[in-house]
């Protein structure tokens, strides 16, 4: 029997032009990967997975990979992986894709996959509430990325207005 893999997709639109969104997102993840707090622009130090009273900080790893899921201008997808360092929480693998939504906005799509730990018990937990926890965790992450893109764009526009 093949191992059970759980898959989750979340999306969000950021008010940031696609032309700069990718660079801003790369900066965000590079800083998060180093676990450097930069004026709270990269609030991943407190990024945790968990439920109830059980919470665990994660170690984020980031990389780029050519995105061949769409024709047109060649660009990269962002590969993400995080680990909580315990068998209770699964290792997560995901891909963040950015797409043009409008002239001034970018659609962020985070697709993720993980193998629930602890065999059949873990699979049952995942089906009952684990997937909801994963979706909430991914939504938190994509919201942080979108806010970072919007903040950078707001700072840029403010600097151009002076």
Structural descriptors:
162 residues, alpha+beta, Alpha-D-Glucose-1,6-Bisphosphate, Chain A, domain 4, two-stranded antiparallel ribbon, 37% helix, elongated
Please give the number of β-strands.
7
Q: The CATH topology is what?
A: Alpha-D-Glucose-1,6-Bisphosphate, Chain A, domain 4
Following the backbone from N to C, one meets helices and strands in this order, namely EHEEEEEEH
Inertia-based shape = elongated
* Level-2 CATH architecture: 2-Layer Sandwich
- The end-to-end span amounts to 63 Å
Radius of gyration from the alpha-carbon trace, in angstroms: 17 Å
Would you tell me the overall average pLDDT? 84
CATH class: Alpha Beta
Put simply, the count of helices is 2
Q: What summary fits the major beta sheet?
A: 5 strands, antiparallel
Enumerate the strands of the largest sheet in spatial order, edge to edge or round the barrel: 1-7-6-5-4
**Helical residue percent?**
25-40%
How many structural units, i.e. domains?
A: 1
Q: Low-confidence parts, pLDDT < 50 over ≥5 residues?
A: 36-45
Structure overview:
The protein has two helices and seven strands, in the order E-H-E-E-E-E-E-E-H. A five-stranded antiparallel sheet has the order 1-7-6-5-4, covered by helices on one side. The protein has a two-stranded antiparallel sheet with strand order 2-3. The longest helix has 43 residues, at 119-161. The termini are far apart. The chain has one domain (6-155): Alpha-D-Glucose-1,6-Bisphosphate, Chain A, domain 4. With 162 residues, it is α+β, with helices and mostly antiparallel strands.
């Amino acid at each position: 029997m093949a191992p059970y893999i759980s898959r989750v997709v979340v999306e969000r639109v950021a008010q940031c032009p696609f032309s700069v969104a990718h660079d801003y997102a790369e900066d965000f993840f590079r800083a998060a990967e180093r676990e450097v707090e930069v004026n709270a622009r990269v609030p991943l130090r407190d990024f945790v997975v968990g439920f109830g009273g059980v919470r665990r900080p994660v170690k984020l790893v980031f990389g780029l990979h050519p995105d061949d899921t769409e024709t047109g201008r060649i660009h990269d997808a962002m590969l993400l992986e995080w680990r909580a360092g315990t068998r209770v929480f699964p290792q997560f693998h995901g891909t963040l894709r950015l797409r043009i939504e409008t002239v001034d906005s970018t659609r962020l799509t985070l697709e993720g996959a993980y193998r629930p730990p602890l065999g059949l018990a873990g699979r049952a937990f995942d089906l009952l509430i684990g997937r909801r926890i994963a979706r909430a965790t991914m939504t938190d992450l994509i919201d942080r990325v979108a806010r970072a893109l919007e903040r950078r764009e707001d700072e840029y526009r403010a600097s151009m207005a002076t």
